[in-house]
Amino acid sequence: MNADANRSSGVRLAELVAALSLATDLGLGVPQEHVLRQTTIASRLAGLAGLSQSQRTSVYYTSLLAWVGCVSDSHEMAKWFGDDQRVRADSYEVDKAGLPFMSFMVGHVAQGLPPMRRLTMIGRFMAGGFREAGASMMMHCQTAGVLADRLGLGDEVGAALAQAFERWDGKGVPGRSAGDAIDPVMRVVQIADDAEVFARLGGIDAAVEMLRARRATEFDPSLVDLVVAHSEEVLGDLDGGAWDETVRAIGDGDGALGEAELTEVLTAFADYADLKSASWTGHSRGVARLAADAARRLGLPDADRVVVERAALVHDIGALGVSTGIWDKSSAWTSADRERVRTHPYLTERVLARPARLAEIGAVASLHHERLDGSGYPRGVNASGIPVSARIVAAADVLHALGEDRIHRPAFPPKTREVMMREEVRAGRLDGEAVNAVLAAAGHEVRRRPELPAGLTAREVEVLTRLVRGISNKQIARELGVTPRTVGSHVEHIYAKIGVSTRGAAALFAMSHGLGHPQTSGE
């Protein structure tokens, strides 16, 4: 990445972790901003409980990350329950211990399968699946802790996250801590999590009733009493701006990340998204490597190359909103499955909608399944609505996926991948320049174009041949599917390379080198 690594990105870590929580909502199968509202409740309760400023900061980050590891056990959950999101969402209804929780789990095993098949699965679950589910909870805690460490959040947050599934009565997982031995930060977060769900579905009275029922079993009795005594203050007014209140709760202590730090955090997001399916490991990082190299080969300005790399890193974050039971299907998707899958680029855009720097990245990432002929999804936009940055990410995503083993097929050999990519170009779905650049980035030999004068790139020639005909930057941008800002950067580079400063002089240069007609994107 060529951006100044130490230059401020204008994005705070608090905002990034809050954005990640929106992806966690998808994995939990709960409405958007559940974790944000939970964090608002936790922050209010921490203040009433007299926790120190350091502890309150830990409450903020622990709450936002507490359930982030739910993605890590999606494969195991889907194996037993099919729809991993549904079982997580429904689990809020029960006290998660003893026979009631066992009954809940058994009731969700293999839902939707034929009766005999379901009976067989229930038998296997009783024999070993319940223990496996407990082990997956531990994996959840470990994943959250690793992510917190990568984000530089310190030992206090990591220690609290390790106790996410402990209980006041000692019947939690792994069952090493009980009562006051559980970090007060996690005790606050546990209450806030379930209280948000009950308050949203049934109002404050429903949340209070649930907390009283689980007092001194699942939850710290003194904290429950505090919530009950101040229920309006802790649980009221949660329908307003959850994002603003949550981000405001952390204050201004964290400051903005540097540009390099922002990319590192988005790389952590990429790894998080790839946990959704066991066959996706390393996919987002691989797509980002290809896309960044391809953007360089196409001569994109530094700022655009950075956006391409970052959009490629997070392009699949919305995939968390689709059940792993669908992603890991070995049989053909049903029409309902396909419709659900078609939402994931849109969900990527929604997760990254705030702050503005993330929104810019999300807008590009959300187009990775759109196609030039309008046959893509979710919006079905055509070439005029797909900038070159998104065309590169789309090509990189397809090529990298073709080289990966998936549940329903093995990886394709390199030559077959190249043939398939070129067929996508001939069919009018993928951009030829982007495909050539991505193939070259992956080590494929691509046919070299004739040497271009003055070190111009193929994209710069496309701009030049339109520029000299008096076409405005805005119109050039529409024709090439890029932004006017990108065209402006290309024009500056063109003038610098050919040593002129006017359109007329540029036209003479173009004609003298046989560049008088617009060049079209091709194979």
How many domains, in number, for the residues?
3
Measured on Cα atoms, how large is the radius of gyration? 26 Å
The gross shape turns out to be: globular
Count of alpha and pi helical runs: 27
CATH architecture assignment of the largest domain: Orthogonal Bundle
Low-confidence sequence ranges: 519-523
What is the third-level CATH name, the topology of the largest domain? Answer: Hypothetical protein af1432
Give the terminus-to-terminus CA distance: 27 Å
Strand fraction equals under 5%
The chain-level mean pLDDT equals 88
Q: Which structural class is indicated by helix and strand composition?
A: mainly alpha
The SSE order reads EHHHHHHHHHHHHHEHHHHHHHHHHHHHH
Q: Which class of the largest domain in CATH terms?
A: Mainly Alpha
The order of strands across the largest sheet is 1-2
CATH superfamily of the largest domain: Hypothetical protein af1432
Number of strands: 2
What profile does the largest beta sheet have? 2 strands, antiparallel
Helix content: 55-70%
Written account of the structure:
This protein is mainly α. It has three domains: 239 residues, Hypothetical protein af1432; 184 residues, Orthogonal Bundle (Hypothetical protein af1432), CATH 1.10.3210.10; 60 residues, Arc Repressor Mutant, subunit A. Helices cover 61% and strands 2% of the residues. The protein starts with 7 loop residues before the first strand and ends in an 11-residue tail after the last helix. The C terminus is likely disordered.
